[in-house]
Amino acid sequence: MSQSCFGNESNNVMEEENVAPSFGDTNIQAVQPSPESGSLSMGNDTFQSVRRKSRTKPLTVDVYTVQCNCCYKWRLIPSLQKYEEIREQIIENPFMCKSACEWEPGMSCDVPETISQDGTRIWALDKPKIPRPPPKWTRLVQIREEGCSQFSDVYYITPYGQTLRSSVEIQKYLENHPKFVLEGVTPSQFSFQMPTPLEENYVRKRPAQSSKRKR
DNA sequence: ACGCTCGGCCG
DNA sequence: CGGCCGAGCGT
Prior knowledge:
With 215 residues, the protein is α+β, with helices and mostly antiparallel strands. It has 4 helices and 10 strands. The strands form 2 sheets. The chain has a 6-stranded mixed beta sheet. The protein has a 4-stranded antiparallel beta sheet with strand order 3-7-8-9. 27% of the residues are buried.
């Protein structure tokens, strides 16, 4: 998955609704220096996007993008592992175009952007400082369909293939598997923070909470 | 995959 | 004090 993301997906970006069933799901994640939102704007945020359409299948992230802290262009990241590394350190080590020379020789702020926030993908703001999962563990983000009560679900897959879906489950699992604790795995290496969709109305609004019960 | 609720927090 | 939203979990 790591390499194919680059060529395949950037070519498919233009196609809108008609997607080959085999490649139904496409997402993009990106790290961005949040130039506009002056609120927190420590320096960097993370973005994630998913191609629209796609049947009732799980929307799984398989393409990753980071925005240059200098020129604000988006740059594709070749693998989830690299993306997670960048996201973890994005505050201390802001991403620059030339950082991408590591996997794409000649990259610089002068190279035109190859992907943008057009209408073909679902973009979402990811949280910075999400820790990399421990070795052999996988952090899985699944984007829900439009109109759901939440934007996404975050899961961790253990080295044995078990799925954990909350920090409580992580805690219990580590208690029951001291092996991992001995290896140095700690709860602080996990975050269930989900990305936030850019599109304002992607997530269904909650029916105004019935204000209190009267008695 | 999706809904729902509880409780903390913030205006 | 009420509305919002994330965490957690049931289905």
